[in-house]
Design brief:
The chain is mainly alpha-helical. Helix content is 40%, strand content 5%. It has a domain of 198 residues: Serine Threonine Protein Phosphatase 5, Tetratricopeptide repeat, CATH 1.25.40.390. The strands form four sheets. It has a two-stranded antiparallel sheet. Strands 2-6 form a two-stranded antiparallel sheet. Helix 1 runs antiparallel to helix 4, helix 7 runs antiparallel to helix 8 and helix 9 crosses helix 13.
């Protein structure tokens, strides 16, 4: 079985061997989902499996950040036919190029989370003295993260139409054959916040490399509140992280080299990608962003920075972020290839080995938290917003600092673009801000009949279709298909 449907195997117990995509805690493949764990050590193994799901190529290992970056106007393609062109051209339908693997992987993760939480509840009710707090908190936070990602893919923006269909809200293990329908976007966000609030007191405030801690939970709260335009709560969450001093921003001198090592001082939540485990080799996220053929003749290098992105960087030739840019295939001088996820322009990787494709993915960095704080403070305290923005803006040392008189959303948006390129934000940012996305289609012979050169969030394909296999397995959800599909 290649697909994982809500109506079928992903919500059936772990005993279904044909659907196993998870590290089972039992030595056999016949464990009962409700008795799969007995100890905190068992729960840790389940969390390890969950982190593996998140780092999979169909999720944060490649597909999710790729989706968010190549659709937002900061990337373009030089030639068709190298893979994932349909993301850039918005060539999606329910029956082809539906990008359904993120849905499948996300709900697979939710299935494992719900089984784990049910097992923990059962054990606590039976009087277990094991301490499951951290694992329960991580599971709840991960469920919130997955739901937030999926509702952004399939639901209209909260600040546009929170009454639109989102995704199914699934919080308990379901019986085989259950056919869950979509909830409203508003209800998805309510559940996301319920999970985050329930989890925050369970999580440690110490660094957990490769796992979710209290501050990762708070950072996700800030993101969610920002998308809801609940700026006071977004600011409070972001400030708590900043004021804790648990994480520190990279200096200008250290910023480029930060991509050459694991778990730096800014990494609040970083997923491990290792050789012989989740390394995708020449089809990795980093390989898609680097120059075609660089490092191996098989490397595709399909996506490069658009002129619009490069023009932002060109505002300051001394911007430290030029340090992860290298020439692309269009000329010897155009620095359009992005090497964050290759460990730098010399393909250093981040494991201190020659492997430049097994590079960790940084889901949440402190730089983003500062930028969220700036945006959240913009309407209430422009001077404070400028203070937070300037901590990131100083990576362009020749640009004038922002102040209460000059700061605006466009300035924050430009800084998010430069700082977070390749990290899975731009498209979602442009959609929530209701900004027009302009595509740099002037390279090569690229078929763009499925979209115009400019789009905004009124374009139906800014959200994905419910895919045909899911509809066939769960006919009721077919009546909830997104408009235009």
């Amino acid at each position: 079985m290649k697909k994982l449907f809500i109506a079928s195997c992903i919500l059936i117990s772990l005993s279904v061997s044909s659907c196993k995509d998870f590290l089972d805690v039992k030595p056999t493949n016949s464990g009962d989902a409700e008795t799969a764990i007995q100890t905190a050590a068992d729960a840790k193994v389940m969390i390890n499996g969950l982190m593996s799901i998140l780092s999979n190529r169909d999720y944060y290992g490649r597909n999710f950040p790729l989706y968010a970056d190549v659709k937002g106007g900061d990337f373009t393609i030089f030639a068709a036919g190298r893979g994932f062109d349909y993301l850039y051209t918005f060539n999606h339908s329910a029956s082809s190029n539906s990008y359904s693997d993120v849905w499948a992987k996300g709900f697979n993760g939710i299935t494992q989370i719900n089984n784990l939480l049910k097992s923990i509840d059962n054990l606590k009710a039976a009087g277990s003295l094991e301490n499951f707090s951290s694992y329960e908190g991580q599971a709840l936070t991960a469920r919130a993260l997955i739901n937030f990602d999926l509702v952004r893919l399939y639901g209209e923006p909260y600040n546009e139409n929170k009454a639109a269909w989102g995704i199914p809200n699934i919080t308990t293990p379901l019986s085989p054959g259950a056919q869950e329908l979509r909830s409203k976007v508003e209800d998805n966000y309510k559940q996301i916040l319920i999970d985050l609030k329930a989890a925050e007191t369970l999580l440690p405030k110490t660094k957990l490399n490769g796992y979710l801690n209290y501050y990762a939970n708070k950072a996700l709260q800030a993101r969610v509140y920002l998308y809801m335009e609940d700026y006071p709560n977004a600011l409070t969450a972001a400030q708590e992280i900043i004021d804790s001093k648990v994480y520190t921003l990279y200096s200008n001198a250290a910023w480029v080299d930060s991509w050459k090592s694991e778990f730096g001082t800014e990494s609040i939540f970083e997923l491990g990608v290792y050789p012989n485990e989740s390394d995708l080799g020449n089809s990795s996220l980093g390989a898609y962003f680097r120059r075609s053929g660089h490092g191996s003749s098989a490397i595709l290098g399909n996506f490069m920075a658009s002129d619009y992105f490069l023009n932002r960087l060109k505002q300051d030739a001394a911007d430290v972020r030029w340090g992860v840019m290298a020439r692309d295939e269009t000329s010897a001088t155009r620095l359009g290839a992005i090497y964050k996820y290759s460990g730098g322009v010399n393909l250093e990787g981040d494991k201190k080995t020659s492997n430049s494709t097994a590079v960790n993915f940084k889901v949440i960095r402190l730089s983003e938290v500062y930028l969220m704080a700036a945006e959240a403070a913009l309407k209430s305290d422009k001077a404070l917003a400028a203070t937070y923005l300037n901590e990131i803006r100083k990576r362009s040392p020749n640009l004038a600092a922002a102040d209460a008189a000059t700061i605006n959303l466009d300035m924050i948006a430009d800084e998010r673009s430069k700082e977070l390129a390749g990290e899975g934000h731009r498209f979602f940012d442009m959609i929530r801000w209701n900004k027009t996305i302009v595509f740099n289609d002037e390279f090569g012979a690229i078929n763009t009949i499925h979209r115009t050169k400019t789009i905004d969030r009124t374009f139906n394909k800014t959200i994905l279709p419910i895919f045909l296999d899911e509809i066939n397995a769960n006919p009721g959800i077919g009546a909830q298909q997104n408009p235009g599909y």
